Amino acid sequence: MTAENSARSTSAATLYIDGAWRAAALGREFDMFNPADGSVLGAASDGSASEARSAVDSAAAAFAWWSRTTAYERAAYLERAHALMLERAEDLAVLMTKEQGKPLKAARNEVRYAADFLSWYAEEAKRVYGATIPSSRAGHRFMTMRQPVGVVAAITPWNYPVSMITRKVAPAIAAGCTIVLKPAEQTPLCAVAVFQVLHDAGLPAGVVNLVTTSDPAPVGDALLDSPAVRKLTFTGSTEVGMMLGAKAAHTVKRVSLELGGHAPFLVFGDADPRRAAKGLGLVKFLNTGQACICPNRVFVQRELVDDFLNVLVQRVSAMKAGNGLDQDVTIGPLIDEAAMTKMRRQVTNAVDHGAKVLTGGERLTDPRLPGGRFFAPTVLTDVTPEMDIYHEETFGPIAPVIAFDDEDGAIAMANDTAYGLAAYVYTENLSRALRVTEALRFGIVGINDINPTSAAAPFGGTGHSGLGREGGPQGIDEYLDTKLVGITL
Ligand code: NAD
C-alpha cells in the first residue's frame, strides 16, 4: 500500500463476511485503475490473513446447517440471483469494461454467460443422484450418497471477473458447500457487484464470503493452511496454480485447477480459408487475447497460407483499439505494463529469429487516452520453434502463423506443449476432423467452431492446463464427496 493510500479516509467496505459488508482493519484500502486511461476507478478494502480466517470461520459455521438444506431451497436462492444478475446486467457490464477493459459488447456477453451458471446449477442441484450397486453377497446391499465436500476456498483471475466467480460459486452452493472467495487484485469491484447480487438474492449469512486484497499470498496461505477448508478451486496461471496445489496437499484438500493454455488452431488444406480466418480473428482477439482459450499457435497447411493470411490481415488491421465504452472499439487495453512488456519481447524475439510482422507489432498511442495500454492487434508469419512465442502462453493480441505440410506433422506440432486446454480444427473432411480431434491432447476441441463453452458443458484442461472441470454435471461433482454405504439386511 502506498503512503497516499494509507493517509486516505476509509470509504471502501468490500469484505463480505458472515452476511455483512466490512472495511478492512485500520481502514486499509487499495485503488483500482481503469486500464483504458489509467484513471482511478475506486477503492477496495485491503483484506488480510486474519480477515480470511474470519471468513473461513463464518463459512464453517454456515456449512453446519446449509449442507442440510434441501436442493430445492438452494435452487430458489440461485434462481433469485440469476434474475437479479440479469436485471443489473447493463450496470455490471459497464463496470466490467471500466475495471477490466473489454469492449462493452463482450462485457454484456460475459454477464449473460455468468448468469447462465446460476440458473443451470439451480436445476442441477436437484439432480445430485446416488446409486444402488448390486452386491455379490446375499442379504447385502450397497448404495452411494453424494454429499458436499465442506468449506471451499475459491481464487479467481481478472480476465473474466464476473463469470469466473459464478462458475465456482453456483455449483459450490448448489452442492451444499459454503465458500470464501478471493478475487484478483485488479478486479475486486466486479466481485463486489456479484456478491451484492448474492446478498440481495437473500443468501443466508456465511454461505458466501468475499475477501478482497492487494496482497494475495497471505490471504491465500490463510485459506490453504486452514484444515476447515476442504476444497481449493483456482483459476489463473499455471505457475501460481502449481504452487497453491502443493500447499493444498498439506491438508489433503480436494483441488480443481483451471490454468493457462497454449491453444493450437489448425487449418487444413480442405478448409474454407475465409471461414477459418474469420474464426481466428474472433477467438484470437477475444478479450484482447487475454483468454485462456485464445489460440496461441496458428498452424495452416502450406497451400492455404496465402489465402488465409489475406483475409486475416484485412480483418485484423480493421480492428479498432481503444476505450471499450466507445461503440466502435473492438480491442480493449492490456491489463498492465507487464503484459505490454511481454508483447514487445515476444514480437522482438520472433523478428530477431526471422518472423515477419504483417500487421501491428507495436504499442499504440492514443492522444485521448495517454494512460492506456494498447497493443496493436498483430499477425506474425514465418514463426518457428526457435521463437519464444512458439512455446509461451502469449495472453495478448498476437497471432503467430506457422505453415505445415501434412496431418501427422500438424498434430505433432499442436501437441508440442505441456499445456492442454483448448484446440481448434478447421477442415471440411469429417474423418479428418474426428481423427485429429482424437489425437489432440487437449480438454476442449472446437471443430470449425470457436465457441466451445457453455454453462451446460464441461470446461477444463489436461497437463499443465489443470485438473477438474467447470460447467455441466462434472462441474458440481467437484464439490461432492461420494459416500459408500454397505447394508446387511
Ligand atoms: P495469476 O495466477 O497471477 O492470478 C490468478 C489469481 O491468483 C488472482 O486472484 C491472484 O491474486 C491469485 N494469486 C496470485 N498469487 C497468489 C498467491 N501466492 N497466493 C494466493 N493467490 C494468488 O493469473 P492472472 O494473471 O490473474 O490470470 C491469467 C492466467 O489465468 C492465464 O495464465 C490464463 O490462461 C489463466 N486462466 C485460465 C482459465 C481457465 O479456465 N483455464 C480462465 C481464465 C484465466
Q: Helical amount among residues, as a percent range?
A: 25-40%
Bound molecules: nicotinamide-adenine-dinucleotide
Low-confidence stretches: 1-10
Report the biggest beta sheet as strand number plus sense, adding barrel if it closes. 7 strands, mixed
Q: What is the highest CATH level, the class of the largest domain?
A: Alpha Beta
Q: Assign the structural class, choosing from mainly alpha, mainly beta, alpha/beta, alpha+beta, or little secondary structure.
A: alpha/beta
Give the end-to-end Cα distance, rounded to a whole number of Å: 65 Å
Organism: Streptomyces xiangluensis
Pfam family, one: Aldedh
Protein name: NAD-dependent succinate-semialdehyde dehydrogenase
GO molecular function, one term: oxidoreductase activity
